[in-house]
Structures are given as C-alpha cells and as structure tokens.
C-alpha cells in the first residue's frame, strides 16, 4: 500500500530537505561506503520496522536519503505522516539495489528516528492539555542545522510553531526592554521598524503586563511566573473585552507533570523547549528481505 506524500508547510521546501540530506550523506559516506561495496549489487527489498509506540515524522527526509543514492528506489509507505503506531509496526517496504539500500540505511533512520522522537514528545504534551484550549508551541532550542525539520516534526505531533527564527517575529525580552528604557518605548520602536511583523513581549511582573497590554502586541509572554502570579495575570488579561484580549503565553521550566495545571489556569499558549531540545530517538530498523510473516 502506498500512502500520499506529506504536504510541506510553506516555509519548508523540498530543496531544503535535499540539502539536509546531502550534508548528512556526505558526513556518513565520505569517499564511499567500503562495506556496502562487498555486497553483490543486485535488486533487493527491505522493510522498515518501528520497535516502540510512536508518532511518525520525517518521511520526506527518509525518502530523500534513499532517492539521493538510487533515484529508481521504490518506497511503499503503510502509514501517513503524523500517524500513531504501536511497537512492531512495519512502516514501509522498499525495493531497490542492495548496496544503496544498505548505504542509505543509517542516515535515513537518523532523520526518521530523531523527527519521530520530536513528534512523539510533542504529542504527549498536546494530550496533556487536551480540552483546555491551550496550544503547545515549540521554541528556537533546536538541533543546529535541523530547525526546520524539527519544527515540521512538532506540527506532525499536533503542536504549533513559535517564530521560525530571528527574522519573522519581533520578540521583546528583558535585554531589549532595558536597552529601550521601557516596554512602551520598545514596542513603539518595534512597530516603527517592523510594522508588518508579529510582536511578542515578555514581561517580568504584573505592572509590566499592564504596560504591555496598553502598548499593544500580538502575544504577551509571562516567563517563570509562580502559580498565584500566573493566575492573577490571566485574570488581568481576561479583564478586557474579548475583542481586545491579548493572548498569554507561558514559558520557562515547564515540565510534563505540571503542564495541565498551567493550561487550566486559562493561558492561551505554552512554549516548551524540551520538544526539540531533549531528543529521545525512536527505535527503528531497516532490514533487507521481506517482513517476517508474524509482523507482515
């Protein structure tokens, strides 16, 4: 069974995926796979096995790895991107040349195990706040060179993306406010220089929260607020007409155990660096031959 090719977000191109793959293959293969050269270069098949419960993400990178070495390889996926699978699931079967199947194995699995790990972690956090209305966001705490891939995986796990980088959202934090003299002054300068970009303001106390609300922005970040202070911040933010409300985002030392309590306080967004920073790769394997009958 072949499953439709995943739809990429607007900020991620096939060219970017292929560039990621080219770097990774060059790192692994160098001047050539000296071990694969020992194999007869014949037509062969393989199967991709997931060894633990997971949410799968990274198909475009997996495919690109194999097609970079063998453009004629056939990859038949049995699952869609973002699907939840159980341990022992055959995710895909492949048909191609034996040497290239083996040479692409590790690099393709590295992408798929890492991105599936990000998607699986994200899905756990999304489940923890189900029904509260709070949205789970990622951060810029990503693996160097793999930010777009990890942010894609967050979406596969049901999360949402914060800013992609320093270029697409103005985010005023403590140092920016200090340099400008006040939140009001920092907001005014941000609007002057970047009138079309979203603006997020981080506040350190309730007075700054009120100042940010008066100055205006797209979202207010309350970082490391104690529970009672967080609830008061929500009360203040909700004290204006709904049409004028500015969403509140919580960040800073947010763990899975206390996540639902934060969401139930009424905040709109919770940004979590651990989605992409603490990578727990999913256990996958690619084996030559057909799947065994008991897992086929």
TrEMBL record:
GO BP: NAD+ biosynthetic process; quinolinate catabolic process
Keywords (A to Z) from UniProt: Glycosyltransferase, Pyridine nucleotide biosynthesis, Transferase
Keyword Glycosyltransferase: yes
Annotated pathway: Cofactor biosynthesis; NAD(+) biosynthesis; nicotinate D-ribonucleotide from quinolinate: step 1/1
Transmembrane domains' residue ranges: none
Domain Quinolinate phosphoribosyl transferase C-terminal positions: 119-287
Gene Ontology CC, one term: cytoplasm
Signal peptide (from-to): none
Main EC class the enzyme belongs to: transferase
Pfam families: QRPTase_C, QRPTase_N
Reaction catalysed by this enzyme: nicotinate beta-D-ribonucleotide + CO2 + diphosphate = quinolinate + 5-phospho-alpha-D-ribose 1-diphosphate + 2 H(+)
Record domain Quinolinate phosphoribosyl transferase N-terminal: where: 33-116
Entry EC no(s): 2.4.2.19
Gene Ontology MF, one: nicotinate-nucleotide diphosphorylase (carboxylating) activity
Binding site for substrate: 106, 139-141, 163, 173, 202, 223, 251-253, 272-274
Entry-linked PANTHER family: NICOTINATE-NUCLEOTIDE PYROPHOSPHORYLASE [CARBOXYLATING] (PTHR32179)
Quaternary organization: Hexamer formed by 3 homodimers.
Family assignment from sequence similarity: Belongs to the NadC/ModD family.
Role, per record: Involved in the catabolism of quinolinic acid (QA).
Protein name: Probable nicotinate-nucleotide pyrophosphorylase [carboxylating]
Organism: Stenotrophomonas panacihumi
């Amino acid at each position: 069974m072949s499953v439709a090719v995943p739809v990429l977000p607007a900020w991620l191109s096939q060219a970017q995926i292929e560039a990621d793959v080219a770097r990774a293959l060059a790192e692994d293969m160098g001047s050539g796979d000296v071990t694969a050269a020992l194999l007869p270069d014949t037509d062969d098949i393989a199967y991709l096995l997931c060894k633990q419960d997971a949410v799968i993400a990274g198909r475009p990178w997996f495919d690109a790895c194999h097609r970079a070495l063998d453009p004629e390889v056939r990859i038949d996926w049995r699952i869609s991107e973002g699907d939840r699978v159980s341990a022992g699931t055959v995710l895909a079967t492949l048909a191609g040349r034996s040497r290239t199947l083996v040479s692409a194995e590790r690099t393709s699995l590295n992408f798929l195990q890492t991105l599936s790990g990000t998607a699986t972690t994200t899905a756990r956090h999304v489940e923890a706040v189900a029904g509260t209305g709070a949205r789970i966001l990622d951060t810029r705490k990503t693996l160097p060179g793999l930010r777009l891939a990890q942010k894609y995986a967050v979406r596969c796990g049901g999360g949402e993306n914060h800013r992609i980088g320093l270029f697409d959202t103005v985010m005023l934090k403590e140092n920016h406010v200090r340099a400008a003299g006040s939140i009001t002054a920092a907001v005014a300068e941000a609007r002057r220089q970047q009138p079309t970009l979203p603006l997020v303001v981080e506040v350190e106390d309730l007075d700054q929260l009120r100042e940010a609300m008066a100055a205006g922005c797209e979202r207010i970040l309350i970082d490391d607020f104690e529970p009672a202070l967080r609830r008061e911040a929500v009360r203040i933010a909700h004290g204006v007409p709904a049409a004028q409300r500015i969403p509140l985002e919580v960040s800073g030392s947010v763990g899975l155990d206390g996540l639902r309590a934060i969401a139930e306080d009424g905040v709109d967004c919770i940004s979590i660096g651990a989605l992409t920073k603490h990578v727990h790769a999913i256990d996958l394997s690619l084996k030559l031959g057909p799947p065994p009958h008991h897992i086929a």
